[in-house]
Amino acid sequence: MSVLSLHSNFFRDMFSLPVPGSCDPSCSRQAGVNTNEEVDGCPLVVLHDSAEDLSNLLKALYYAGPEFKDNDQQDFQVVSGILRLSSKYLIDALREKALAHLSKAWPTTLEGWDAREDRARSYESDAGPPTTYLYPSPIAVINLAREVNAPSLLPSAFYDLSRYSYAKIFEASDDELLHRTRSPPLSLPDLQKLTLGKEASQHAVSALIQSLGTSPNNNSNYYHQHASSPSSPPSFGHRRKQSAGSRMCVSAAACRKDFGELVDLATQHYLMDRERGYSDPLYVAEELGQLKSVEFSECEACARSLETWATRERERIWNLIPLWFRLER
């Protein structure tokens, strides 16, 4: 009782109530205390929680904090249970630790997202089968965030889920999305948010490639509606006045040709073939920026222009994710 009362406002209030026998049966039932059963002379408190989750919660309280690991699927079972019960029983310090740990896999910053993706790619390349995933199902994360009121987890979880095809979301096999953490399906409101956001991310890939070859004033209506047009395209092949510390394109005709080929290649790969990136504009912008050393190896000015443009676009896209999935309403 002393340990639970020290960490939990819920149990502190429960144990401050009169002991069984000093009040009518209704008050002890409301507190969860069984007046008819004892364990080692102590009144029994009935908790309607998973035995596994409760065991992990008590271990975290008694052993000086939780032993969280690497945010993989097995770790998520432990962390989610602790987060669920620490929220339910008002154990604020433990809730904060669980949320901070989950935020490493479901971050709120682009820098955190890139670190997460690097780790996932490294794990999946070493794991072998293409159905081997490091992180739990984003569906499970969305449902958990709703249950414990943790909205900071939602943008990255919705974005991750939007990268899956609808067939994989709704018809996953035992080794795939829905069954990775035995998660129930999304609620209807969240399913609607996913559909709208997934469509927006696909539009973003098209607009991203289109903006490479057009003025910002000619971008798609989608971006005008959201007042968030792609930034000015890189100025490939354009000669500028030389000033102190600036660089100019050294081969305008060659760079314009390379630039045109880059747009055609991106269109074919990301829009026509629909390889990885079709629903992942952050990935597309990153890859386009990394092509600077391949497509423009002879022109440092154009290579830097492409890299700067891609970096700026990724920041813009990251900031739009909550809007895409209607998470700010």
Automatic annotation (TrEMBL):
<feature type="region of interest" description="Disordered">
    <location>
        <begin position="219"/>
        <end position="241"/>
    </location>
</feature>
<dbReference type="InterPro" id="IPR011333">
    <property type="entry name" value="SKP1/BTB/POZ_sf"/>
</dbReference>
<protein>
    <recommendedName>
        <fullName>BTB domain-containing protein</fullName>
    </recommendedName>
</protein>
